Amino acid sequence: MGRLLFLILLIALIVYFVNRYLGKKNPVEKTSADSTTQPPEHLASEDMVQCANCQVHIARSEAFLVKQRFYCCTAHAPKK
Q: At a CB cut-off of 8 Å and minimum separation 6, what does 79 contact?
């Protein structure tokens, strides 16, 4: 019984260290200086605007601008 537990523990440690070794990224690719100079793209802030029709807030890049007013979708924008 003791040999079986030792064998299971040994296999688990081997699997752990192999996953840890293969999961590491090259430290040259990512440095702390790179992450401090520019924030990640998905965390960058963007101006929010309010739909003139339903008052929902939406990112400026996703909003529709019609006659100096922002709309969340084409259905809320005036036709002409």
A: none
